[in-house]
Specification:
heterodimer, A: about 375 residues, mainly alpha, two-stranded antiparallel sheet, 2 strands, globular, B: about 280 residues
Chain lengths: ~375, ~280
């Protein structure tokens, strides 16, 4: 009835077609689930996409949420090419936010913005990189699976942030809320017009995507990454150092996640607060962004915008249709499941020989 | 008094870990990595709480928890066994989906006390019996040989007449049921109420415990109760340390446990050779 044969190297068109149809299938499945929850799926989808792409305000919010996704997604895409599963971007983002906050609280307004802001980003990148490199080192030196070590660090850093904002860093001017004091004006990022788009981070994110693509496809390190991801034993035999590459890749993706954390604290909140306020699951959503982009850093830009839109739309249906915030996690989970399932059609050609027989018989008639 | 009380509470805290770890060991022994434990536990917890609250029977709740975990695992089995999907991606997606679904369905149960409870906690005994039984099946029966061999060399099994896909489906579904029951234990016995995010990373600790136990259900009990004790130590130390620092303990301990497992010299503790590799008949 249905014939499945394997294929190698699907064309770009096929790959794009499979990605788009997987996304559509995911949206369809999610609609069915919304319907099962008693929510009109057409209405919910319309709210999601009109909330995120239907107005200037919505678009601004979409881009704002896409900024951390792009930064993190670019790093994850590079790490994925090296077959490294960095699930710890959430924690690395928080590490970046903590380091930037430490710098901002200590230096206050002693430096002008043109010096202060690069310093914040450098501190954040260092914090994230350290966090990522730790997991890379644990993996290569101690054989600790990176999925689990990065995840455990997510929980540990979330607790660290809470410890800081409830304890030693609790602000004196925040009316008892668990926030640090606000950053000095020179340590906050400027926004585009009335939106919340903190443009220095957006610029950094776009540059990060471009630089990651360059790194991956045009440099020796990128070649090593792809070789080690393809077959670490062969790479080692060829004189490459897969262990060193793995640690560097984890540090690189961690650094970009840390920069995303700087954007959130210095661009949006202007202080450090609850971990779930600083990052609403960006580290996890960015995995989806990198996967939809087929681990191509430049394609992370459109996939981040799409997912940013879904996050904004999720807020919209939360307020207007009374759905809980976790509904968007359901939506993203189903999208990722559909993407995982869709890969089957990249690796296997599925055909119904019924049609083939007809074609053959036509030929035979000729 | 304090010591026996602490021990008893460690056992209760370790019970969900033992249940879910024994299940994950089966899935991984058959060659399927299931990173969706956290999500399966979450849906198990909410289904168990909801059913127990509406029917008044904790036993039906437990059954519902197991069913919910199995249902979510069925998605994973279909994608990973039938569709040869990437097991890491599918498992992560399952966690997102499970946590999300539990949040959506559990909205009406937040802050609600559990109207009915087990008269005596049967879960600890159930977990011990199940993990011991699963250990016996795994190491002492033909089924166990099939499970272990399918995870090591599916091609050879297929040639020997073992239906690889069927064994893997069975193991993944079993893992789902066990994770669902673990979730049910959380919402029916340990807490007992429904709080969003109440699994608190236990599903991930289970994945680590699977490695720590060397894929052996008998050894899983040691790890699970050790971690139960670490969970409980938070309450003992709360007058000395900040609660946020204490909450880091189980996660830091997980890293330490993996460090210990990673440097263990026993070759027997290496993962199943075909772990996380999809298998298709006739392909090498």
């Amino acid at each position: 009835m249905i014939r499945v044969s394997s294929r190698t190297d699907p064309s770009r068109g096929t790959a794009a077609g499979v990605t788009v149809s997987s996304l559509l299938a995911g949206i369809l499945l999610a609609s069915l689930l919304f319907a099962a929850l008693g929510v009109n799926p057409a209405q919910a989808l319309a709210r999601i996409f009109s909330g995120s792409f239907g107005s200037v305000y919505g678009l601004g919010e979409t881009v704002t949420k896409a900024i951390p996704l792009m930064l993190i997604g670019a790093g994850l895409a590079v790490a994925l090419r090296g077959k490294l599963w960095n699930i710890g971007a959430e924690g690395q983002l928080l590490a970046g936010a903590v380091c930037a906050t430490a710098v901002a609280l200590r230096l206050k307004d002693s430096l002008p913005a043109p010096l202060m802001i690069p310093l914040l980003f450098a501190a954040g990148a260092a914090g994230g990189a350290l966090c990522g490199a730790l997991s890379g080192w644990l993996k290569t030196r101690w054989n600790v699976n990176e999925v689990i070590s990065t995840l455990m660090l997510n929980y540990i850093l979330a607790e660290l942030v809470q410890f800081l904002v409830y304890g030693p860093w609790k602000g004196t001017t925040q009316f008892g809320f668990p926030y640090t004091d606000n950053f000095a004006v020179s340590a906050t990022l400027p926004c585009l017009g009335p939106t919340r788009i903190h443009w220095p981070t957006l610029l950094a994110a776009l540059l990060a995507c471009a630089a990651s693509a360059f790194l991956l496809f045009r440099t020796r390190f990128g070649f090593e990454t792809r070789a080690c991801g393809g077959n670490p034993e062969a790479a080692r035999y060829a004189g490459l150092a897969p262990d060193r590459t793995a640690v560097l890749l984890m540090a690189f993706s961690g650094a970009l996640a840390g920069m995303a954390g700087v954007g959130e604290v210095a661009g949006i909140h202007k202080h450090l607060s609850y971990p779930w306020a600083i990052s609403s699951g960006y580290g996890y959503t960015a995995i989806l962004a990198a996967w939809i982009a087929a681990a191509h850093p430049l394609l992370v830009i459109p996939s981040s915008l799409l997912l940013g839109g879904i996050l904004v739309g999720g807020d919209a249906i939360q307020t207007s249709m009374g759905l809980p915030g976790s509904a968007i996690s359901v939506f993203n989970g189903i999208l990722l499941l559909a993407m995982a399932g869709g890969e089957f059609f990249l690796r296997y050609r599925v055909s119904m020989p019924l049609f083939k027989v007809r074609r053959l018989s036509k030929k035979a008639a000729c | 008094m304090l010591i026996s009380d602490t021990l008893a509470r460690s056992l209760v805290a370790g019970t969900p870990l033992l249940l879910a770890t024994a299940g994950e060991i089966y899935a991984e022994r058959s060659g399927v990595l299931n990173l969706g434990v956290e999500g399966m536990m979450a849906v198990g917890a909410v289904a168990a709480f909801g059913t127990a609250a509406s029917t008044g029977s904790p036993w039906l709740g437990l059954l519902a928890g197991a069913a919910a975990g199995t249902a979510l695992a069925a998605v994973h089995a279909f994608l990973c066994v039938s569709m040869k999907a990437n097991q890491v991606v599918s498992g992560l997606a399952l966690t997102m989906l499970g946590l999300g679904l539990s949040g959506v369905y559990g909205r009406s149960y937040v802050g609600m006390p559990l109207p009915c409870r087990f008269r005596h906690d049967p879960m600890l005994l159930l977990a011990l019996l199940l993990s011991a039984g699963l250990g016996i099946v795994l190491f002492r029966t033909r089924w166990g040989i099939a499970v272990r061999s399918v995870g090591e060399h599916p091609g050879a099994c297929e040639a020997a007449g073992v239906d690889v896909a069927r064994v893997r489906y069975a193991c993944v579904l079993l893992g789902g049921a066990m994770a669902g029951m673990a979730g049910a234990q959380l919402s029916l016995v340990y807490v007992p109420s429904w709080i969003e995010g109440m699994t608190a990373g236990r599903g991930w600790i289970v994945i680590a415990l699977t490695i720590f136990a060397g894929w052996n259900p008998w050894k899983a009990a040691v790890g699970a109760f050790l971690f139960g004790g670490i969970d409980i130590s938070q309450y003992l130390l709360q007058s000395y340390l900040s609660p946020n620092i204490l909450k880091m303990f189980p996660y830091a301990a997980t890293l330490l446990a993996l460090l210990a497992a990673g440097r263990s010299p026993h070759g027997a503790d290496s993962p199943p050779a075909a772990l996380a590799l999809p298998y298709r008949k006739g392909e090498r």
